[in-house]
Structure formats: structure tokens, C-alpha cells
Design brief:
The complex is a heterodimer of chains A (about 100) and B (about 110).
Chain A lengths: L1 H24 L3 H26 L2 H28 L7 H13 L1
Helix pairs in contact in A: 1-2, 2-3
Chain B lengths: L1 H25 L3 H27 L5 H34 L11 H6 L1
Helix pairs in contact in B: 1-2, 2-3
The chains are: A mainly alpha (about 100), B mainly alpha (about 110).
Chain lengths: ~100, ~110
């Protein structure tokens, strides 16, 4: 049973690495934020899996709870930041458009 | 018996996360990627956490029971927080003016307008 949980943790780790590809390639900033949100949620679960394997779940559960709350607050705060600041370019093409508009003015 | 249920829960969770990663990498559009990330991530998290909580109930004592209920509490927290974060990110993307995907040749975009 422990070997099965180790396998689950390794598979989750590799899928998180695959999600990291979207964070690196993502065309816009919010695409990267989505990937970071997914990776953070899965990191919460990896912490609990580690606690189960090490036999000290009662300690790791509190760490995972704090991590889940921080991840939620990070996502909402970053979303609010990109909603308020219209000047921050969401994509690279947006930046070119604003530069061209300024040049035409 | 409990082991079989735990194995089923964990495998289903990993399967859902496989679908999430696949959708996040292969969908063409920001909005469809949010669709894959929001639903599959929440579902796989809840399934894996329920499986681990059941695995914690293996040796019944007061401490293990409390730990299992804490894990279920984390599952409830993710069930509330993850769709809220997804909605906030989606709203931010809509406000910053990201265009929806318009089909292979951009043909459906004209019809929508």
C-alpha cells in the first residue's frame, strides 16, 4: 500500500512538471497564473502524501492547510492586480499595440 | 476492503489530473484552458484527499480521527476556494481583453459578432 502511494506521488510530480510547461510557454500573463494556481493546489496534496509516507500526518496537515490558504490568497490578489491595472500588458501583442498608438499620437 | 476503496479514489484522482494537464497543454484558448484547469483540478484534489483521509482512518484512534477530519476540511476548503480563484482569474482575463478562439480558420468569430 505504501508503494502505491509513492507511485501516486511520483505521477503527480511528473504531471506538475508537465503543467510547468504551460507556465513557461504561456502566451499571456494570466495563462501563467492559471498554471501556478494548479501547481499550488497539487503541492498541497503532495505535502499530505509526504506526511502519510513519513507517518506524521498530524503535523503535515496543518502545513498543507496554511499552504492552501496562501495559494488561494495569491491567486485572488494576482487576479485583482491584473484587473485594476489596465496599463499592465496582458500579452506581448497588446504591448506592441499600445506602443504603436502612442507613436501615432 | 478499505484498501480497495482508497486505491480507487487515488487512481481516479490521478486520472482527473491527467485530463487537467492534457487540457491545459493542448487547448487552443485561454478560456478553454481555464475550463480544464478549474474543474479537473478541483475534482482530482477532492478525490485524492478523500482517499488519503480514508487511509488515515486505517488505525482508529482519537488522534487519527482528528487528522482525517482535518484532511476532509482541507478538501472542503479547496472545494470552495479553487472555483473562486478560477472565477477571479477568468474575470481578470476578460477585463484585460483576451479574444476568444474563433475556430480553425477564425470563421466562427465573425458569426459571433
Amino acid at each position: 500500500m505504501e508503494k502505491f502511494i509513492i507511485c501516486i506521488g511520483i505521477v503527480l510530480l511528473f504531471l506538475m512538471l508537465a503543467t510547468l510547461v504551460r507556465v513557461i510557454l504561456g502566451p499571456s500573463t494570466i495563462d501563467r497564473l492559471v498554471g501556478v494556481n494548479v501547481i499550488g493546489t497539487k503541492a498541497t496534496i503532495l505535502i499530505i502524501i509526504m506526511g502519510t509516507l513519513l507517518g506524521r500526518v498530524e503535523m503535515y496537515v496543518d502545513i498543507a492547510l496554511a499552504y492552501a490558504l496562501l495559494n488561494f490568497i495569491t491567486s485572488v490578489a494576482a487576479a485583482r492586480f491584473f484587473q485594476r491595472n489596465r496599463d499592465v500588458p496582458a500579452t506581448a501583442s497588446d504591448q506592441n499595440v499600445t506602443i504603436k498608438e502612442e507613436a501615432s499620437c | 476492503m478499505l484498501d480497495i476503496i482508497v486505491v480507487v479514489f487515488l487512481s481516479l484522482g490521478v486520472l482527473f489530473f491527467l485530463g487537467t494537464t492534457n487540457g491545459l497543454l493542448r487547448f487552443p484558448d485561454f478560456y478553454s484552458r481555464m475550463h480544464a484547469a478549474g474543474k479537473g483540478d478541483t475534482m482530482s484534489s477532492i478525490l485524492i484527499l478523500f482517499g488519503l483521509a480514508l487511509y488515515t482512518f486505517h488505525h482508529p484512534s482519537a488522534m487519527e480521527l482528528l487528522t482525517g477530519f482535518k484532511i476532509i476540511f482541507i478538501a472542503v476548503l479547496i472545494f470552495i476556494a479553487s472555483p473562486t480563484a478560477t472565477h477571479a482569474l477568468m474575470d481578470a482575463g476578460y477585463e484585460s481583453g483576451i479574444e476568444p478562439w474563433g475556430g480553425e480558420n477564425g470563421s466562427e468569430k465573425e458569426e459571433r459578432r
